[in-house]
Write a structure and sequence with these properties.
1020 residues, mainly beta, 22-stranded antiparallel beta barrel, five-stranded mixed β-sheet, 50% strand, disordered N terminus
Length: 1020
Amino acid sequence: MTDCSVEEILKSALKNQEAEFVVNENRIIVYKSSSESTNKPKPDITQVTQQTVKVTGVVVDAMTGEPVIGANLLVKDSSTGTSTDFDGNFAIDVPAGTTLIVSYIGYNNQEVLAQANPMTIRLVEDTKALDEVVVVGYTVQRRESLTGAMQVVSGETLTTNTTPSVENMLVGKSAGVSVTPGSGQPGAAGKVVIRGKSTINGSSDPLWVIDGVIVGTNSGDLNPADIASMSILKDAASTAIYGSQGANGVIVVTTKKGRAGKSSVNASVKLGVNQLTRGNLQMMNGTELYDYFRSFPNQDKITFGRYDEDLRNANYDWFKEGTKLGFTQDYNVSVSGGSEKIRTYTSIGYYNEEGAVKDYDYSRYNFRFNVDYDVTDWLKIKPQISASRRDIMDQAPDISVFYSLLPWDSPYNSEGNLVGYRPSEWVKSTGNNHMYDLQWNFEKTLAYEVMGNLDFDVKLTDWLTFASVNSCRYISRTRKNYEDPRSRDGAGYNGNLTDKIEQSYRVYSNQLLRFNKLLDKHSISGILAYEWNSYTFTKNESTVSGFGAGFTVADAAATPRTIVGAQEEYAVQSFLANVNYAYDHKYLAQVSFRRDGASNFGVDARYDNFFSLSGGWNVHREDFFTLDFVNQLKLRASYGSVGKRPEEYYPQYFLYDTQSYDEVPGGIITQIENKDLTWEKTYTTGIGLDLTLFERLDISLDYYNKNTSNLLYEVPLPSVTGLNKSWQNVGSVRNRGFEVTVSYDVLRDLKDWDWSISANLGLNRNQVRELYGDQPEIILTTNSGVLDNANILLKPGMDMDTWYLTEWAGVNAQTGQPQWYMTNDAGERVITNDYGEASSHKVAVRTSSPDFFGGFSTDLRYKNFDLSAFFSYSVGGKIYNYNRIEYDSDGAYNDRNQMKLQKGWNRWEKPGDIATHPAASYGNDSGSNKGSSRHLESATYLKMKSPSIGYNFNLPKLHISNMRVYFSAENLFTITGFSGIDPELPPSYIAREDKYKISGVATSIYPQTRKFMFGLNLNF
């Protein structure tokens, strides 16, 4: 498309849009008319009717404040009109009281009353019209010609949140895209899963592509303020062109570019505070905890040094004293503009967030410089460079101490000094005063990320272009962990100091031919390319001990303890082709093919092929289709394959664990070679429908079926072999799902008012289809803690996130004792009060997968005011609330605080009570708090994520085209029945080697923060 003439592009884009255009003196002036004025003559852009009122002013983009060049101003019920110049200015003589119709392609029409004073007219983006061209794999396409399932999220939509992590900004923004935010710790990134997990282990992270460059499975330190748009590619028709790297979906990011015309300066400031959200987890105060202990029937077993009524008045609030209102600040300045020959975009950004947990500070600095230089009419070069620096100072404690430490104990003695490890002054001195250690100990991280591109396009003919994308990305991260010899952690070694340096290099190159040809009603476009992608990672780590207090360099240490070094690398090369065909904009077809080779496969199986076939039908363009209220009706269908490489760098080789004996080096084999290890493959079938009604209501529906086979799995080997593992291709899984996106313009083209609402919903059902060998099932243990873990059951026919637990049978109403289910010799489920007996009869109990999830929003504008709100939700699924093992222990854990009973909970007191909680006692050994389905809770929630209200000022005397002042909040409230901190959980790890992430385990995570932000946007 980029190789067509301007006239061809506009004719194609405006087909059936009731619009005309004129190309004159390098300016494109588009006239878009409503259906009522279709037969009126085209306005004469040179004609100025001399009337009594001279109207002047400027037309700007309502969001950015940038001038709209070539906007139409037409006197209502007349052919008199004009257009704006390169600065967005206009002047026209009209009768007094005249109504002007202002229009421009990509914006909603607006009617304004002509005024003698200088006017500022703000056009609101018409997302339906402006989304004509979207970024897909390696190219751009008209939305109408798409045959795959994808969704575009604009940069403005993303930045409703204040966070340095782009991943967190996607929560609830796209149907079928599940995002579990990272913890509330500043800088923590969330986990994105597109259309369910397609593997039984390993990562489900999508591929990220930034300005045409594959950068890996995360967005890195990309500044959200630099994003123009994000295209989320979901099905095979969209992702197969990325072959082995598109199995988990693809997120294509386009950063902002300069535009020809007047240079613009944009500045933004966000300032605000953040606080921890406590959710429904409320801990007992001193009075409540004392009364709880006094309720135990075995008072003689309580052996506290202090145990009297005075404890009722001992109420040290560890949570309150360890947290604060953190200050958040976000500054961004960008300059863009240029001529027809050269266009640039330059930006700098600074983000700083103080943790709501005291003594944690996160800072990030960003820089970006994008250039588009038309050297000649056949050569364009596009150099880019971006850089970031990240500083983290961490002296914050683990969040669990705020819940576990007793309110009867204080970190200070009677003289106001900090007490140390297991202080004798404490009631139950088995804990540690973290504040004592953290007055000295710290962890400091410094990270740099630099990415440079040298891209160029060579126009060979009017329909054929050679494009070259060449990029290098370098990341350096240093971390210093200091444990003072005066602290508990450092005392054993007389001080402990660890320095770690990690570096990675990613080189990416893509050389492609892009063609685009129009032949009457036939349109054909495509690409043919060769791609190379390599990655190298190095790590050096040293630990020393034995130094004086306050020394933070290794030279001061007396004893070197450990030295660790590693280097890992891989490379992928690919050959790819993609062809799109359209006939008369009615019948659409696409075919893609890709052949990938990867270094981390067996020598006999490194290459494989991936493909996709898709088609579409724009029914609304057929002559027989006469429903005027249906503006678009498109049917889509696709089928194709994508692949997945292992996360390990060398899973195909014999691996050795190096050891030494009597200073003689040696090694032990730990992994068997597999020369046939090959690609994990996913075949996806998808059908979809896009519908627009009354030019106001947009509906998109998609159904998909994903089947993944040849799963990459680290198979454990029998101990008699003397080896630990072997990577193999085993098993299969399936994901089926449905997605719907709806948007509706409630008020549109109405004077002073605009109001739109939108919503999306996604549901996914996954199922294990086959495991390796004759294995009937695999049991994975979640690394939730040292006290009692939960299990995940992998079994054919079941959900991949099925809980495998001892089944809770409630409280015996007569005795108050806990009960569980077990299976007797006859295969019957019976009740027992012996946890040890029941724990050997675990069963599959529900799943953590939600029934459906999504988000909805509303945007309202009245004159210069704007109001918006965004909500996210998830319905169904079960959370394993590990916190209750410790904090709802029925007296088993008497060295830590306990949580208050939730609404609807009650404790057994006498025979006949129907209770949720059994009788409590000091040192309770009934097993009532041990791991079981008792701790499974509903994961359903509704969150108000980001409401905001703003006002736009026009200050031409100050050379400010637009100033927007606004106030916003984030994570304002959550409606949920979950008794923990937050049902929107980040992933946890499975215990085996701490590699594989799962969802649904609630531990004492750093809660998400609630933010209140004041913002100011300036456009010059």
